[in-house]
Amino acid sequence: xxxxxxxxxxAAGHFFHWIKLCTYELNSGTKKTGIQCGDATATLSGKTLGxxxxxxxxxxxxxxxxSWSALHIEAESFSGGRPAKxxxxxxxxxxxxxxxxxxxHVLPDDFGIHVxxxxxxxxxxxxxxYFPKAGTYYIWVRGMAFSGHSNSVHxxxxxxxxxxxxxIRGFKPFNEWVWANKWRKRIKVPSAGYHTVNxxxxxxxxxxxxxxxxxxxxxxxx
Length: 222
Fold this sequence. Notes:
Distance between the termini: 17 Å
Helix content: under 10%
Radius of gyration: 18 Å
Strand content: over 45%
Number of helices: 1
Shape: globular
Oligomer: single chain
Structural class: mainly beta
């Protein structure tokens, strides 16, 4: 949408974008929160945003926005990483419903698990990210689990596992893409500037499609 505010961040040939998230109001008075800011006078006929379908000459007005609200990261846009002795993250575009060009699948799916000592033993994905401010950032993961043996992942920052981002779970129902951040998992960014966000396998067979980082504790993806 025109009017979106973003900072582009190059990583492995891809761009990450910090965006504004807004509350929109249609002429009819219907409101929807948590979608990207756009031109308040734009005609959005034929478009669907945040679950709202716009038809005819419907126009929207921006009710309120929060700048630097969320960073969307495609899982396949990693800037680095490391395989492990038995497992590795593999790109896939064979699972319908992914965003971007595909997703990352940790294989083989052999009931493997790393509960502790995962920093040293588990396969890792790295994402170099520019943070506009220091502070706490909550991590949402869009992923797919095929069973109770493949439904969690660890996160961290600058190569360190942190207790507050360990064991991200809640990817139910199985065999569907689900946004999850049970118990508000988070990382603490020490300073503004570039830092590396990490993902580690917790259970083999898990698939990650996308990440969102946000300072908003109450944020929830649509």
